[in-house]
Amino acid sequence: MTAVRSDPDQPVWDVAAVRARYPALTDGRAWLDGAAGTQVPDVVIDAITGVYRRGLGNQGAAFAVSAALGELVDSARAAVADLVGAHDPSCVVFGPSMTALTYRFASALARTWRPGDEIVLTELDHEANVSPWAQAAYRAGVVVRTAPFDRLSGSLTVEAVTALLGDRTRLVAVTAASNLLGSMPDVRAIVAAARQAGAVSFVDGVHHCPHAVVDLGWIGADLYLTSAYKWYGPHLAAAVARPGMLAELAVDNLSGVPSQAPVGFELGTNPFPALAGVAAAVDHLADPTGHDTAGGSWPTRPVPERRARLVVSRSAAVAHERTLGARMVEGLRSIPGVELLPGWDAAQRTATATFVIRGAAPAEVSASLDRDGVNVWHGNAYARSVASALGLFESGGAVRASVNHYNGAEDVDRLLRAVAQCAALRR
Q1: H or E segment at 413?
Q2: How far, in Å, CA of 139 to CA of 117, rounded?
Q3: CATH number for the domain that contains residue 144
Q4: 269: closest CA among 410, 39, 60?
Q5: H/E/C letters for each residue in 125-145?
Q6: Is there a contact between 121 and 147 (Cβ–Cβ < 8 Å)?
Q7: Structural domain boundaries enclosing 268
Q8: How many domains does the chain have?
C-alpha cells in the first residue's frame, strides 16, 4: 500500500498508514512539535540497530564489514542527493548538526575575505545562520549587513536583500523558511541576485526541506543545509554544495586525511549507524507506507527511480500539510484571546502556527497543552532576531505548533480545543 497515487497531479495522503510506521505515535498524544524535531519510522530504527547488530569497524580495512561501511557512507550521500535534487553525491558533506557545518564553512569561506569586504545576513534566520558568519566577519574585518524582514507580513522580500548587495559582497546567508514564523522567502531570486553580485549563497534549508519538494538545480544555491532529524531521520546534518564548490575551499583537518571533497570537510570517524538511518529515512520519504528500505539488512540499497518517487510522495505530503496548516491557522484565528504572529498568511509558508495567548506566558500555555496531551514548543526557537524585532523577549517568546506528514486532522482539532480552553481561563 502506498501513500500516494501514481499521478502527482492528484495526490492522496493515507495518514493512518503513515502513522502506523511510527512507534512513538502510539502514546496517544498529538505530536505537533516537529519543527523542533520529528519522530522516526520503524525502518529508520531498524536500519540504525542493524548496523550495531552486524558489527562496527572503520573504513579502509580488508574485512567485509569495513567494505560494507564504505558502501553505507556512499549510499547515505546518494540518498541525500536524491532528496534535494542534487546530481552529484560527492557534493554531500555530513556533520553532527547544521550549526557545526555552518561554523565549518564559515571558517573556510572567511579565508577568502579581506578587510572591508561585506556579507549579507537576514533578520529572519535561525541563529545558526547568523552567529557563525558574524563571528567570522568580526575576525576578518568584514562588514556585516542585515536584511530586515517585514514586521506586518513576517516575510523577507527579495528587495530587502538585493538593496544591500554591492561589488564587495562576498556572502549571502539566508533561510529558505523561518523556523519560528514559517514564512518562506523567494530564495531562488535571492540566490540569483547573490550570484550576479559575485557572492556565495548559503541557504539554511533545515525548516524548508521537510516541507517542500527541494530541487537544488532550480534553486541554484552554492550551499544548502538540511538536518535529518527534521525529516524523520537521526540527529545528523548535511551540506550540499554546487558542483565544484568544495574544490574551491580549503579547510583544516588532520594530517593524512584525504583532502579531496567531501571527505576533507568531515571530521573524524563517520557515524555509521546514523548514516544508515539517513539513507533509510530518505527511502521512507519516497514510499512512506511501504517497506522498500533495507531496514536491518544494510547497507540500504538505492530504490529504483528514487528521485522521481520522492517528487511524487513529497508533493502529496506537502499538500496534506498545507491542508492541515490552513485548518490550524483558521481555527486559532477564531479563538478569542489568541494572537497569531506575522507570517501566518504569507503566500509561501510551512504548516507552522506561532501564537500567544493574551494574559498567559508561553511557557504556561505549553504546560497547559501538555496536560491535554498536546506537544508544542515555546520560546524563541533560536530565531533571536525575529523575536527581538517582534518584542517577544520580555514575554518569553511565543508558542509554536507545527504539522508534519504523520499528523492528522484529529491532532489539529485536539490542539484547537486545548488552546480554546487555555485562552478561556485567561479571559
Answers
A1: helix 409-424
A2: 12
A3: 3.40.640.10
A4: 60
A5: CCHHHCHHHHHHHHHHCCEEE
A6: yes
A7: 64-286
A8: 1
Helix (H, G, I), strand (E, B) or coil at 331: helix
21: in domain: no
- The count of C-alpha atoms lying within 13 angstroms of the C-alpha of 175, restricted to the half-sphere facing its C-beta, is 32
Separation of alpha carbons 242 and 200, rounded Å: 11
Q: Smallest Cα–Cα separation from 317: which of 408, 410, 211?
A: 211
Q: Please name the residues in contact with 52: beta carbons below 8 A apart, sequence gap of 6 or more.
A: 273
| Model pTM score | 0.94
In a domain, 264, yes or no: yes
In a domain, 302, yes or no: no
Answer whether residue 75 is part of any domain: yes
Cell numbers 505515535: residue: 25
Q: How far apart are CA 110 and CA 202, in angstroms?
A: 13
Amino acid identity of 86? A
Q: Please state the separation of Cα 294 from the chain's center in Å.
A: 24
Q: How far apart are CA 213 and CA 176, in angstroms?
A: 12
From first to last of its 427 residues, the chain has per-residue pLDDT tens of 334 433 445 457 999 999 999 999 999 999 999 999 999 999 999 999 999 999 999 998 999 999 999 999 999 999 999 999 999 999 999 999 999 999 999 999 999 999 999 999 999 999 999 999 999 999 999 999 999 999 999 999 999 999 999 999 999 999 999 999 999 999 999 999 999 999 999 999 999 999 999 999 999 999 999 999 999 999 999 999 999 999 999 999 999 888 888 999 999 999 999 999 999 999 999 999 985 544 444 444 455 699 999 999 999 999 999 999 999 999 999 999 999 999 999 999 999 999 999 999 999 999 999 999 999 999 999 999 999 999 998 889 999 999 999 999 999 999 999 999 999 998 7
